[in-house]
Amino acid sequence: MRRLLFITAVLAVAACLAAPAGAATLPGVIDPTVRSAREGEPVVLTGAQMGTWAVPANQTVRPPLMDLAECPPNPDPSTITNPTSGGAAGLVGGLQPTCPAGTDPHNHYAQPTVDTAPLQPSGTPVNRFLGYRWDDRAGRFRQIPFQVDEVFTRYLNNTASGFSPYSGEDQHTTYAFDREGFRYTANTPQDPCHAVAASNEMTDPVKGLDTNDELAFMARDAGPTAPARARLPKGIEAAKAIAVSDPTNPGSPTRYVYVMRAGPRGPKPAFDAFNGYVRYRRDAHADTFAFSQSSYDTYGNAPQGPYCDDQGNVVRNADGTPKIGQRRPRDGAWITTPRYRFRYDGRWLMTQIRISGNGGRTYGADLVDRWKARAFAQDPGSNTPCCGYEEEDTNWGGSSILLGEKVGPVRAIRETWGADSGTNVVRRETFYRDSMRQKTWLRVHVIPPLDGIYAQWDFNAGRVTRFYNSHQPAGVPIDGSNDEVFGNLDDPCNANYNANDTSAIDQGYRTLYRQLGTCDWNPYHLSADPGDPSFADANASLGWSQTSGPAGTIVDRISTSITDLTPGGAAQSVVAVPYYRDDSCFDDGTGSDPGPKVHLRSGDEPRTTADGTPRRCWKPSDGIPDGSDRFFQGSIGTHGLHLLFLADSDNARMTVPTDEIVSDWSMAMLPGDPGNVGEAYGRTFERPLVTTVADAPNRPDLLG
Question: Measuring CA to CA, which of 306, 320, 347, 570 is 20 to 30 A from 185?
Fold first, then answer.
């Protein structure tokens, strides 16, 4: 193992030293001549910006270790069901809580010890706030899609998880959801397949608008300033003018949206979840219970009961009795906007993005294989001293639950809770008309070098044809062949990679490794990716990426908001490097394109098809894959971030953010292939729209 670490470290250092001096762009440098593209950008304000219209948000406290005091783990060794199955199970996995009778140890919110909400006044009901723009031609205000989302803090607890003695409870501030999926653990006696809520959704403990609530609209809906004597709509009590300006386009006029407060009998919102920009539709069988258990069976424990197949039939034992096991709703859903369609096949399975070029009348081909995540090892054939191989399908899909779903006229929001030993990992997708933003709270234990954690989008062969970033302004072809010089170091002990079309450095490393006989005496071997500074920026947060093809373009950017930084998380984010792999021969363990992964979680992938024909790696000359097993599952234009290692990001068992890592991943969806537009769409994080809030004229003679 020491020799493997040494060889890989030397190659990583050599890559850094050999980075060409003539890289296209200095890391993270903005091109001031390029204006940011704003047509798809949302504007999100907080209640605090509304001044006296909002009452203070409540403040809460929950001391550390309360979960252990209330439900101490059972130290009986007989309860440890899989101490060597992977992760850190040998340390804490399988320890079941001993909770008082009537206590539900599964996913729930722990009650704060101190909460100021009962002492605070109520604000104006949020449904009385409306968004307007001034219509010059009509000479009046017109409503626009406008959304107010209430926000408050919870303390996440899943004492039932085998890893909860390490993870504990975590403070998490998020939305008042329409539906909280973790509550759907029960069924009626008449229908054991259909999940029903065992408790009611939690509402914001501060009624009405408070300072941490959010108000959202689209920048495209801003209009000209209203005349000084413009009459407010009938029933409006007061108004505020929101000025929206673009710092990248100094000559452009400031645009305005008017947030108005309706009286008790005033106008109602003209837009809702059915006629706004975003539609969120759960599948017809999304509430059907399915068997759901990680390969580390105690991680993310779910309540047990009967579960059902894809057709809604109870799965039974040989004697006809219902099988009993951990179960969760299937949670499949579609998100549809005039620009794109997005598919969930499960909580961690995000499997389709289809882009429209005609306002939503039709949608193009699916661009993505799926979103993928890896922990400890990049591919299933790797063998590391710690701690197995985790992926989004079996592991995290089998140990997670939905935290919540919320849909309005401007955006739809969905949060997933739990990822094996990341008991309180939370991932949020927020869908707007032309873009999606994925935010992740990474609360995870120590993960040693070299392979850490990967998060990446894998694309579909033939559907995307070119990849750009600031170091590759002309782009590189997405053709299933390696483009990096240094980054990809395939497992030297996996003979399946011997003929891969990777770099000379990779093949030289593999040859040297085998010549030294390391595979014979060292049981540990892995595929690793320390990054390639000649191909991309040194840190994943410094630059944008663009993936294009005839059916559409996605410009994405990973960043971190200053408001989410923790001392420990900021330090560890330094080792988050960009990840890129275009290799149709590389087996990362999940997915269905160019061909299906036949043996899930196995490094022993069949080398022939079901009829005995040799399988092969896809090439562009093969055309669009047909979904059969004639091609290997590969990595096509796959990119994201690689967190090389973690000291800890699970908040050191504190109930407030201490060392968690929070990342934002924005994705702008564009029709067709516009060429390189990454600088325009990928820098809005650094150059946000500027908003100012002022009271609109409130003369009594101008009230409606």
Answer: 320
